[in-house]
Amino acid sequence: MQRTIVGIDVGTTKVCTIVAQVADGGRLNILGVGVMPSKGLDKGVVVNIDDAVNAITASVEKAERLSGYRIGTAFVGVSGRHISSLNSRGVVAVQRPDHEITRNDVARAVESAQAVAIPTQREIIHVIPRAYVLDGHEGIRDPIGMSGFRLEVETHIVTGEMMAIQNLIKSVQKTGVEIDDLVLQPLASGEAVLTDEDKDRGVMLVDIGGGTTDVAIFVQGGVWHTSVISVGGNHFTNDLTYVLHTPHNTAEYLKLRYGSAIAGEPPAAGDEQDQIEIETLTVGEQQKISRHLLNQILQARAEQVVELIYNEIRRSGYEGMLPAGIVLTGGAAQLGQFDELMREMLGMPVRIGTPTDLSGLADSLDSPSYATGVGLLRWGARHGLGMLGPTHRSEERQGWGNVYERFKGWMREFLP
Ligand SMILES: Nc1ncnc2c1ncn2[C@@H]1O[C@H](COP(=O)(O)OP(=O)(O)OP(=O)(O)O)[C@@H](O)[C@H]1O
Ligand SMILES: [Mg+2]
Predict the structure, then answer these.
(1) How many domains are there within the chain?
(2) Closest CA to ligand 1's atom 19
(3) Domain that holds residue 133
(4) Is the CB of 21 under 6 A from ligand 1?
(5) Residue 398 — very low, low, confident or very high, per pLDDT cuts 50/70/90?
């Protein structure tokens, strides 16, 4: 049996809608892709609903035209500085007299992990079980059917500001599309570019987009740390416009065409190779720009991004313990030698992650920019309708669905 699912990545620079058929083994057959410039977003967050609605509508309509599929619901990515995450343990006594663990015990354990204080203006986006502990034995992935007295679960909880989440939900719903589930963007990207082996060994996913750098650290197969840093590819371009006094378009062109995160040795005096000639705003007038200066500007910003990434590794407590290293994705991962700079500065393996294993209209998705979009589909294929539950679909709903309905959704989503 095949079902059709849709992912909408509402990014800071582009909105990407992908329609795909999921085959039984989970394989994705891409039926349609609609990529349109984004509007109304700043650093991953909706700041103008009307603009965002227009951009999402254009992207959805394009994907519909290409696929011939009428989009009713979609998995949607969420990001922004308002996101925060924490790890929480839940504990329950096993209920059955013979001490065999049931789904119900697991559900109760996960529920008790959520009994942490979440400030009133925030809501929970994910509660993801990472591992179970049975009578003190750590690292159990699927406890159902095992026997024991005391079941603990380690979960990763992601929350976001209610208003930021509501504005994203509104922007999508106003296009006539209901939301199957909201997925934290780095978790979606991770679905597209990480292997199970990466996650088992210990890996960091880094998605550098236009407005934000989204990170997720996986250890022993589960998610341990997630964070959103408010610096992305746009900052590189803005730096160039300030320092080189070029228009934004020119700066973006220079970055894509000549940019490198490692400036290297300064050129010899009078080195013509170093000079890039570009048109200025005045017709017929040329401006000469030093390639080395261009890359020095980019390197300074790239180093800052790597330092911020390093801070997150330290914050996670897994410094020196991520043998699979960093998987770098997002559009800005394509900046020349960015991976090399990161490898040098952090002393870790770094590879660039691009979505793979797709059939159908897959060619257009062969870029790190589409990790989130493809990952939303993989998330949907793996977890199905998530936490939102039916309450989410009603216009009158208060907040983001009632907790019990959402909790039932989580159970469907994550129980082994
Ligand atoms: N070859 C390249 N070299 C350097 N930067 C690039 C290259 N290609 C794309 N970028 C940059 O990637 C950024 C866009 O990446 P992406 O499409 O992943 O962003 P987004 O998903 O819209 O934004 P976000 O995830 O931050 O909300 C832009 O800043 C763009 O300049
Ligand atoms: Mg993105």
Answers:
(1) 1
(2) 209
(3) 84-161
(4) no
(5) very low
